[in-house]
Specification:
Layout (H helix, E strand, L loop, with lengths): L1 H12 L5 E10 L8 E9 L4 E7 L6 H16 L12 E7 L5
Parallel strand pairs: 3-4
Antiparallel strand pairs: 1-2, 2-3
Length: about 100
């Protein structure tokens, strides 16, 4: 799965990456009662760029809002107290609706 994820990122974004961190079903907890997210695949490369690969089976009507929320949760998770906003890493969310959607 790790090699598959790397190939997908490289093909879709037309760039070469080296994976530093790889996690499936990454659980990013919400703060103060906010909604948590579970990323299908979370990859961080050696440049600290974050890639979240999402494959969905249902036809949710709120896809743009959902992806916007996912990116905001990733930002909050990686920007620690005392860091500058310019230190927020680049984030790419690759979204694919499953061929076997319900």
């Amino acid at each position: 799965m790790k090699n598959w994820s790397k190939k997908v990122i490289q093909i879709v974004l037309n760039q070469t990456i080296e994976i530093r961190h790889y996690e499936t079903q990454a659980d990013l907890k919400g703060l103060n009662g906010s909604k948590s997210i579970r990323g299908n695949v979370l990859v961080i490369d050696t440049n600290n760029t974050i890639y979240n690969i999402e494959v969905q089976r249902n036809l949710s009507q709120a896809i743009p809002e959902r992806l916007r929320y996912y990116e905001s949760r990733i930002d909050v998770s990686y920007l620690k107290e005392g860091m500058e906003y310019k230190e927020i890493p680049d984030v790419y969310i690759l979204y694919k609706r499953s061929l076997w959607s319900q």
